[in-house]
Amino acid sequence: MAITEVDSARAEAFAGRTVQILNDAMLSLLLSVGHQTRLLDVMAEQAGVTSEELAQAAGLDERYVREWLAGLTVGGIVEHDPETKTYSLPPEHAGCLTRAAGSNNLATFAQYTSLFGELEQQVVECFRGGGGVPYSAMPRFQALQAEESAQIHDAGLIEVTLPPPRRRRRGCG
Q1: pLDDT digits (tens, 9 = 90+) for 55-113
Q2: Comparing 47 with 56, which gets the higher pLDDT?
Q3: Is the pLDDT of residue 114 over 50?
Q4: Can you give the three-state secondary structure of the chain, one letter per residue?
Q5: CA–CA distance, 124 with 131 (Å, rounded to integer)
Q6: pTM of the model
Q7: CA dist 5 to 10, 11, 18, 114, 127, Å?
Q8: 16-161: which CATH topology?
């Protein structure tokens, strides 16, 4: 085995980057949960809420909402006011994480993280033996594609296909 000198600063920087990748993967899952449970949408409508208030407004279990909020707070997605014990989703974040954002809703894409995680072992087997993973192994894929397409096409339908009616000129029947 060859002996190689290791640049400890470079190794430490890479380890930090790897930890960031792992943290961001978990944040992606939290965004997916927030999208699927509509927590992000409900939160965007609230000025500042406790975990209890958010759970009640969303019709969800408070313990899970509290832990979800903690993860998103650490990730810099949600802001926490320790004095009032409230959480808020800044409007700049809501603008790309809620259904109100239309085709700009990036939280929709976070759902692919868990979808592809479900397929990981099948993909590993393909590395070993070739072949592929059939669409039948990913029934949620079509649903996610439909949701993504709807965001894009609904916006286009309103803005392009159904533009506001032109005003008629006076005197024309």
Answers
A1: 999 999 999 999 999 999 999 999 999 999 999 999 999 999 999 998 889 998 898 89
A2: 56
A3: yes
A4: CCCCCCCHHHHHHHHHHHHHHHHHHHHHHHHHHHHHCCHHHHHHCCCCECHHHHHHHHCCCHHHHHHHHHHHHHCCCCEEECCCCEEECCHHHHCCCCHHHHHHCCHHHHHHHHHHHHHHHHHHHHHHHCCCCCHHHCHHHHHHHHHHHHHHHHHHHHHHHCCCCCCCCCCCC
A5: 11
A6: 0.78
A7: 12, 11, 21, 38, 32
A8: Arc Repressor Mutant, subunit A (1.10.10)
Q: Domain segments of the chain: what residues? A: 16-161
As a whole number of angstroms, the longest Cα–Cα distance in the chain is: 92
- Beta carbons of 103 and 151 less than 8 angstroms apart: yes
pLDDT, mean over the chain: 88
76: CB partners within 8 A, 6+ apart? none
134 pLDDT exceeds 80?
Answer: yes
